[in-house]
Design goal:
- The protein is α/β, with parallel strands linked by helices and 1072 residues long.
- Helix content is 54%, strand content 9%.
- It has seven domains: 185 residues, Rossmann fold, CATH 3.40.50; 214 residues, no CATH class; 181 residues, no CATH class; 151 residues, no CATH class; 108 residues, no CATH class; 85 residues, no CATH class; 58 residues, no CATH class.
- It contains 44 helices and 19 strands.
- The strands form five sheets. The chain has a six-stranded mixed beta sheet with strand order 8-9-10-11-12-13, sandwiched between helices.
- Helix 9 packs antiparallel against helix 17 and helix 11 runs parallel beside helix 13.
- The N terminus is likely disordered.
- InterPro entries: P-loop_NTPase.
Length: 1072
């Protein structure tokens, strides 16, 4: 065995190498399981085993067995099979790209599908009959590590595709992967949603545990030692060590097995062999490290340990071997037992300071206690008798009792009576037992049991397995601890409650009555006798008190916290055991009846019964991708694709999905609609969408229809339907609700009007459905309730719009009718939307269209009211309907021509005030252009120049020319005018004309622009006539003029009005 031992196996490199392999019972069992599952139709397997368990060797031996080169296993997959192997070793890279390289897939388009196609081609090429292709992926975890940090959705989806492809039982393609830990462990750094997706992929594989049990490793070790080491010790010493080991109950091994290997293991004693094996599993690589130990030639190994001082290769020798060979790991932060190993080293140092003689014996005791505290089971009996006998027999410490007593006296070790074991103790001045007794006198008796239990007890949610398997809806129950039976209302991911009631003042009848009144999924558990629980809580409170009083004594606090932890574990153990034990002191009630629970299976079965009673309307929907509280990101994408297909391809068979492809969105369509006999295809708007009468969705269908029916009387938020479906008797998972409600509303879209914060939505789009699922409280519906006079009014609108009348009312006809009104209003100029120069009726009609949130109310209430009619009047006198329609036409016509009327008034203003007679566009345009033809335009101010340029514009479109004129004066086009802007236009237009007229006169004078400036002056007064003057100023007098101006300014006073009057009077005198 030693000669053929190698530290590692490579399934590709070592294919043709002759290697020795011992097929263990565990390995044979794995092969048997793969073969049996293969015959049941399972084709994808994931072998999980820690480092060094021989998974690579197993795969190689498995290949040799299939090929027949060596018969390690009996692998009867098929009769006389034709086979082939594809072998891959994982690396930190993309599994998609790795497979693409192996199967020579070079295109990036549909790469995953092409890879699967190439795998099938490889399988098909093997032969005609009984062919089988094995795809072996060793070190699969490295691909998963890469996937977790690089595009996990893409990588993981390919793994899912690969597993589902291989799991097709029509073909014999077997996928076998090996990992060091379960698949979901690689997803610890991902979001919760991504972790759930990882867990889903794990379900595509048959997971097989490969860790070799400790017994198997011990057996292999015993065979090796027996073959290579001479056994010269006395059998009675071996038997004594064996007896010590079994009496400790440190390890749960079959006594007969230990007796069989005890002699073969020598010089290892059974206890040290066990702990050595466990430590190599934890710190090394299982049998790989075990055989390294057996072959070790260093001074701490089996071959060269000090046999004179050690009758056996005992626990102190194991400590030395581990400390020598794994030192770097043991002192690193990655060591899960870092503090325990540090404590051993600290205790050894304390021994060296505390004792002068027999130090070796004390150190042996410390090492032994330390290792046992790390690796022995929690219920082990490691008392003084055991250590005295073990140290003497296995370690050669003759005065072992004195050694133990002295270590305890020096506070280096301490005996924990509650756990019946010695521990390493770093020392404290506090007498813990005395302190605990004193604390009992300081604190009061435990009264509030509930608060303390909630503080110390941690329950995980319980999954109702049978119900969930039957319906496809996962149901989770949460524990609640209280002193009275309470009302609880399940919401979110929690579907029910288990109410544990602790109150000695209550009677069983109190709990039973409350249970009878309870309609929700609440199961009551009444603890009749809580005395032992109170005692445990009192002990815990005492410990907490001592910790609080001695918080600066770190050693004492650490010891007390350890005791506290043991007590809390005992409390949890007591309560959980009581719940499922069928104890007479525990009473279970549901629906007013006492329920009997004998064990956990009974309990879980009862939870499923509770779900079946309370949630009896929940449909059977076995689509794990959708039927959950939170869907994954990949299903979010599928949801968008599904809504797109539903909106765009509802009239096509299977929503237009390809026949031979099954993306998630198609699977959702098939499971949600087709399997329930629901088809979105409608030949016309009168067709009624129906559901298969045998579908489990019938009650859900009726409840959804009831919601639409109830919306006849008032607008209802879509969230109201969501609330109904998220409570009993449905309690649908949010994932399903987010698919069902948009789907149902789309199918029934012709029966109601739907609105959001911005108003009526004529046509439901994929974006609407997505937002509706995400924000149902922002959407509401109003079901059409239109007959009698409303239908007459509706048809009068259609006649007015030249659309054929209808005998019945639907959303499509409603859209056809309302759309022209909405389009008409949106196309109106801003002036028409805001002017008050309309009749009161037209303004009301305009306001009704502009503010319409509910077109039904607008059509049948607001419009008639705006024109002075009521439904009652129209219903009593049919002739009034014709008058109403005529008045509506007049109001709409008035709105339509409001802007044209503004343009007309502007024209009339120009003609009346400046042309002096009615004129056509070309006439008044030419008139204005000629009027200012002789202006010196280069001397105009910028606004004057712009105005003149607009006058001279060659535009031949009347509205465009007038708009350009208006904009040059007011800064706005006529379309954007308010009523005030119209008055401002006329004022500024008139002022501009007067300014330009004055400048035209100046322009006619014979002026030398290079040598003089010209100013036109005109002053109007009631009392005297002053003719306009043109003042010509030589430029060489500019300095003199500036001085006169400054002198005048200096003479002016502080009153600006007086200054202006004085200057004007002076100017008037100078001009006369």
């Amino acid at each position: 065995m030693a000669n053929s031992f190698t530290t590692s196996v490579n399934i590709i490199r070592d294919t043709d190498r002759d290697f020795s392999y011992i097929p263990t019972p565990n390995a044979k069992q794995v092969v048997d399981q793969i073969v049996n599952d293969f015959k049941k139709g399972i084709r994808s397997f994931n072998i999980v085993g820690t480092y060094g368990t021989g998974k690579s060797s197993f795969l190689l031996a498995f290949e040799h067995s299939i090929e027949g080169t060596k018969r390690y296993f009996e692998s009867n997959f098929l009769v006389k099979p034709e086979f082939s192997f594809v072998k891959i070793i994982g690396s930190y890279s993309s599994i998609v790209e790795q497979f693409a390289d192996i199967f020579d897939v070079q295109t990036n388009k549909n790469k995953q599908e092409n890879i699967l196609s190439e795998i099938y081609n490889r399988y098909h090429s093997i032969g005609k009959d009984n062919k089988i292709l094995f795809v072996l992926i060793d070190e699969f975890g490295k691909f998963l590590e890469y996937a977790a940090k690089n595009n996990p959705e893409r990588e993981l989806y390919f793994v899912q595709q690969l597993a589902e492809f291989c799991n097709n039982s029509k073909h014999n393609i077997v996928l076998i992967t090996t990992v060091h830990q379960s698949l979901e462990s690689y997803a610890y750094s991902l979001s919760k949603t991504q972790q759930q997706e990882w867990t889903k992929v794990k379900g595509r594989f048959r997971e097989i545990t490969f860790n070799e049990p400790v017994e198997q490793l011990l057996f292999l070790a015993s065979e090796h030692v027996a073959a290579n080491v001479d056994n010269q010790t006395l059998n009675r010493n071996i038997e004594k060590c064996l007896k010590l080991t079994t009496e400790t109950k440190a390890f749960n091994f079959n006594t007969g097995f230990l007796q069989e290997i005890a002699t073969k293991l020598y010089p290892l004693d059974v206890l040290s062999a066990n702990i050595l094996t466990l430590s190599l599993q934890r710190y090394g690589q299982n049998e790989r490290s075990l055989f390294s130990f057996l072959e070790s030639s260093d001074h701490t190994g089996l071959a060269k340990f000090n046999k004179q001082e050690n009758p056996f290769y005992n626990l102190t020798n194991v400590y030395d071997y581990l400390n020598f060979n794994f030192y770097s790991f043991l002192i690193s932060k990655y060591n899960p037992d870092f503090s325990a190993w540090s404590s051993i080293r600290s205790s050894i140092e304390e021994v060296e300071r505390a004792f002068d003689s027999n130090i070796n014996g004390y150190i042996k005791a410390v090492k032994t206690i330390g290792l046992l505290n790390i690796f022995s089971a929690s219920g082990s009996i490691l008392d003084l008798k055991f250590f005295t006998d073990y140290l003497k027999t296995a370690c050669g410490v003759s005065d072992s009792r004195d050694v133990m007593n002295n270590l305890e006296t020096k506070n280096i070790i301490r005996y924990r009576s509650h756990s019946r074991r010695f521990i390493l103790f770093e020392g404290t001045d506090l007498d813990i037992q005395t302190a605990l007794m004193e604390a009992g006198n300081k604190i009061s008796e435990v009264v509030d049991v509930t608060t303390l239990l909630n503080k110390h007890i941690q329950f995980s949610s319980v999954f109702a397995k049978q119900y969930s398997f039957t319906t496809g809806t996962p149901r989770y129950f949460q524990f609640k601890i209280s002193d009275y039976p309470n009302n609880y209302y399940p919401e979110g991911e929690i579907d029910g409650f288990i109410n544990l009631v602790f109150n000695s003042k209550l009677k069983e009848s109190d709990i039973q009555n409350k249970s009878e009144q309870q309609e929700e999924a609440v199961l009551y558990c009444f603890f009749k006798n809580s005395a032992e629980i109170k005692n445990l809580l009192f002990e815990i409170e005492k410990i907490q008190k001592v910790i609080l009083d001695n918080e600066k004594d770190k050693v004492a606090v650490r010891e007390l916290e350890s005791i506290n932890l043991a007590q809390v574990r005992l409390l949890n153990h007591y309560i959980t055991d009581s719940i499922y034990s069928g104890s007479k002191d525990i009473k279970w009630y549901f629906n007013g009846e006492e329920r009997k629970i004998a064990d956990k299976k009974d309990f879980n079965r009862l939870l499923s019964q509770v779900c079946g009673i309370v949630y009896d309307a929940t449909p059977v929907y076995k689509n794990e991708m959708v039927n959950k509280h939170k869907i994954s990101s990949s299903i979010h994408t599928a949801k968008k694709n599904y809504f797109r297909a539903l909106c765009n391809d509802w009239d096509k068979e299977n929503l237009g999905f390809e026949d031979f492809k099954f993306p998630p969105e198609k699977t959702i369509y098939l499971s949600l609609l087709k399997e329930n006999g629901i088809s979105p295809i409608r030949e016309n708007s009168l067709d009624v969408i129906s559901i298969d009468e045998n579908s489990s969705f019938n009650r859900l269908w009726r409840a959804s229809n009831d919601f639409i029916e109830s919306a006849k009387y008032e607008q209802l938020k879509v969230s109201d339907l969501s609330d109904v479906l998220s409570k009993r008797p449905f309690k649908l998972k949010q994932g399903l609700i987010d698919f069902w409600i948009p789907t149902f509303l789309f199918l029934k879209r012709n029966d109601f009007a739907i609105f959001n914060d911005e108003g009526y939505i004529p046509i439901l789009s994929e974006e609407n459905l997505e937002l509706l699922a995400k924000y149902p409280d922002q959407y509401s519906i109003k079901t059409f309730d239109i007959d009698g006079v409303k239908l007459d009014i509706f048809n009068s609108y259609r006649t007015f719009l030249n659309i054929s009348t209808e005998l019945t009312f639907s959303n499509s006809s409603f859209i056809e009718t309302i759309k022209p009104f909405i389009v008409f209003y949106k196309q109106l100029p801003e002036y028409s939307k805001n002017t008050r120069r309309l009749s009161a009726s037209a303004i009301k009609i305009r306001q009704a269209i502009a503010t319409s949130k509910d077109p039904e109310v607008t059509f049948f209430e607001v419009f008639p009211s705006a024109l002075g009619f009521t439904l009652t009047v129209l219903q009593q006198d049919k002739s009034k309907l014709q008058i109403y329609t005529t008045n509506l036409q007049d109001a709409v016509r008035e709105l339509r021509v409001a802007y044209d009327e503004l343009v007309k008034r502007f024209e009339e203003f120009i003609c009346n005030d400046f042309v002096g007679k009615p004129a056509q566009f070309e006439e008044y345009k030419e008139y204005l252009q000629k009027r200012f033809g002789k202006l010196k335009k280069h001397m105009l101010l910028s606004n004057q120049k712009t105005f003149v340029q607009r006058l001279d514009s060659p535009l031949d479109d009347k509205k465009a020319w007038l708009n350009s004129i208006a904009q040059s004066i007011t800064g706005k086009t006529l379309e954007m005018f308010s009523d005030e802007d119209e008055m401002l236009l006329y004022q500024r237009f008139k002022s501009m004309i007067l300014e330009l007229d004055s400048l035209t006169k100046i322009s006619k004078a014979d002026i030398d622009e290079r040598h003089e400036d010209v100013i036109g002056v005109k002053i109007d007064t009631f009392f005297s006539k002053i003719d306009p003057k043109v003042v010509r100023i030589p430029k060489n007098k500019s300095v003199e003029i500036e001085e006169i101006k400054n002198d005048l300014k200096n003479k002016l006073g502080k009153d600006n009005t007086s200054n202006i009057a004085a200057v004007l009077n002076l100017l008037k005198e100078l001009l006369q």
